[in-house]
Amino acid sequence: MSGDLLQRARSGDRDAFAELVEPYRGELQLLCYRMLGSLQDAEDTLQEVLLAAWLGLDGFEGRSSVRTWLHRIATNRSLNALRSATRKPVPAPTPAVPAPEPSRLGEVTWLQPYPDLLLDNLPDQAPGPEARYESREAVSLAFITAVQLLPPNQRAVLLMRDVLGYHAAETADLLGLTESAVNSALKRARATLQATRKGDRPALPPDSPAERALTDRFVAAFTDHDVAALIALMTDDVWVRMPPLPFEYRGAQAVRRFFTTVFAQDCTIGRIIPTRANGQPAWGEYSRDPLTGLLRCTGIVVAAYTTAGISELTHFETTMAPHFGLPRTLASA
């Protein structure tokens, strides 16, 4: 069937081309997201990938599968985006409220969450035999953040080898590198990611009783602005991040100072709406507008749960709300 679609697409049948690439659209966008760390950049790059595939159909010789051919295009287009001078992040905005001195200034500010709704629509494509990461771990915010620390070629090699599971020779062919260059880049990339790992604390299974219980306690503490209760739910080495702001807070004491300062401002959270991002619990955050009384979305919070407690909280800007089906405003309850 795919051979017939390919022939029809090559003859100029756009409907046949759409049917040919549709099974891979979701995983191509996810590959671009893993490379770029930004959902909006991934969506834009996916459109470039599909256009390049349409224009390059005559050059597809069938020596690999259509899926592998599309992976090649997506990876190379993502590399082009990473190397483009136009993709530099704009200066970070001023915080909406005064924040305490951060533990450090983060290296990764070009980061956006990925709605679980898009993950639910992915086909059941098992990774190749060389994969080292499970699908869930390879979309977590911790993994995506760590990948953004890698140089472009190392990023591509790691994703091809350890996430998609291509052999070294296949990866070399896909990226136009020698096999020795692939092996060298992979070794360096693995070392960088290993240095970012936080021990071996396992994540709580999604929608498990333990995850639901921790969520109930977090929501209660967060909406009550109970700093002591929040800190009690967190690991000692918890991280709080706020991309695109470079501020990062690490450790219970630094996070305590952060929430004490934020909750003391006149911007209390009136309601949070549950969603999921990157396979993790998340919420749309709403604060009351003192003039209109409406609840306005002030961001998206994504949590990382482990068996020891909450290990990360990441706050994203309101620009991501539409991607999660979250309204900008809510009527006052």
Automatic annotation (TrEMBL):
Superkingdom assignment: Bacteria
Keywords associated with the record: Sigma factor, Transcription, Transcription regulation
Coiled coil segments of this chain: none
SUPFAM superfamilies for the chain: NTF2-like, Sigma2 domain of RNA polymerase sigma factors, Sigma3 and sigma4 domains of RNA polymerase sigma factors
Domain RNA polymerase sigma-70 region span(s) in chain numbering: 20-87
RNA polymerase sigma factor 70 region 4 type domain mapped to chain residues: 142-193
Residue ranges occupied by any SnoaL-like domain in the UniProt entry: 216-269
InterPro entries per the UniProt record, alphabetical: NTF2-like_dom_sf, RNA_pol_sigma-70-like, RNA_pol_sigma-70_dom, RNA_pol_sigma-G_actinobac, RNA_pol_sigma70_r2, RNA_pol_sigma70_r4_t2, RNA_pol_sigma_r2, RNA_pol_sigma_r3/r4-like
Pfam families reported in the protein's UniProt record: Sigma70_r2, Sigma70_r4_2, SnoaL_2
Record's subunit section: Interacts transiently with the RNA polymerase catalytic core formed by RpoA, RpoB, RpoC and RpoZ (2 alpha, 1 beta, 1 beta' and 1 omega subunit) to form the RNA polymerase holoenzyme that can initiate transcription.
Name of the protein in its database record: Sigma-70 family RNA polymerase sigma factor
